[in-house]
Amino acid sequence: MFRKENVVLLIIFNLALFSNTLANANNSRLTIHGSLSPNAPDIGTLTIEFYNHYFFDLTGKNCILKKIIVNGRRFDYSSPKFNNTAFIKIKIDYSKYSNYYQLSKEIFVASPGDNIDLKIDSTDFIFTGKDSERYFFSNKIAKIQPILSQPFDGMSEEMMDYVYNAYNTAFLKRMEILHQLSNRLPARVTKQIEFDLKCKENYEYNRCINKMLLTLNNDTIEKVIKPSFFKYSSHFLEGLNDSTLITNSPYYYDFVFKMLRNINMMFHPTQPGDIYRTNFSYIFSSILSDYDGQTKYALLVCALTDFIVKDSTDQYFDAALKEIPSNNYCYNILHNIKTKFGRGATVPNYALKDTSNQTFYIEKLKGKVIILDFWFTGCTGCKQLANAMKRVHEVFDSSKDVIFVSISVDKDINEWRKSVLSGVYASKSIDLYTNGMAEEHPLIKYYNFRGFPQLMLIGKDGRIFYSEPPIPSRPQTTNRFIEIVRSAI
């Protein structure tokens, strides 16, 4: 399950690719020496996730977990051996320490031989040591976001100029940070980062336009959004024609796909309220006919992991897999997604605990349509989902064919039971618990969820019917969700 809206920080993906350090027997690991600052809580443990390539969040593979005990407020970590590039997440239990929630989601790029000192304070990770500029750069850039203080009411040309300038200003501020470091980086590394930052700006702007296209009426799109979009379109592609930089930039593919989707929505308009407003077959055909090689493969991954295709059959996955060589990592990603999330995929039957502390297996519900959600205490989105699901409960409350199941990833069983009783996170459902293992539970690790809440439908045959249905947060998506459930009965 891959949500581009929640894109993680990869703008310096290729710093390590251009590293002058050659891995050898004694210099092919990442080493971290960590400590807690006086104002940091005594976290006890943390987990470092080690990955081999940047599409890791889709696959759930190539991840090596290591739980680190923080002893005397200090800890050490040594990675497995690797060549060229690796990625790490430094995860702290944010169900207990919510101030580390965003930091635990960030990605840091590593090269063989990196020897990093990491200080954890109450709100931040502070990197020093050999090649720490890359880690510091990634952390600092992540905090620069476009400032959009005005509401999108009464869309006009002036408002569209304001939106564009907000994203361009963020880009220029990021470039200022890069220039502060450029004298310490090889010229080709600086060039790659500049390219990625430009792609990041374009991606963010196109994502904002995409949100407008999903909600505004066709007249406003035609008179305001479309002229503004093409007014700035030449800026999107300016300087983004170096094939080497394109190949090495994951943000380029994200940006191009989002732009293709926006163009599709503007020239093939539907009515506002349609949950996708997109002709996916048109985008898919465009990728196949207009792009070649790795760019085509990566765009197919972007397209097929975007939520707009969750409503389709497996035909697009099968067609894409025929286009991509089987030894290419994009092939492995799509094959893995189809296997785990495609319609008809097997749902793992791992043990869970119910509110009576009895072992429960999802398999025992075979024969019913299961509306399954995942949540944790303190999750605002989880509360919103529970509230949105009330209308769905009303429709299927008396149905013998539909059952609601809520799985919590809370670590503390008493906290979970208290939250269940509150009715804030789930209601009228079978409430299950991941046995205190939280995100380390094999079911959660299997799906490699990157955030919560999560929602999926399991068919009567016990297999995936819909891996990421529309969240029933407004009338149109609620009606669509209900239609999908009825089609599964």
Automatic annotation (TrEMBL):
Q: Which Pfam families match?
A: Thioredoxin_8
Compartments where located: Cell envelope
Q: Can you quote a single GO CC term?
A: cell envelope
Q: Which domain of life does the protein's organism represent?
A: Bacteria
Q: SUPFAM superfamilies per the record?
A: Thioredoxin-like
Q: Which GO terms describe its molecular function?
A: isomerase activity
Can the keyword Disulfide bond be found in this entry's annotation?
yes
This chain belongs to the protein called Thiol-disulfide isomerase or thioredoxin
Organism of origin: Chitinophaga costaii
**Phylogenetic classification of the source organism:** Bacteria, Pseudomonadati, Bacteroidota, Chitinophagia, Chitinophagales
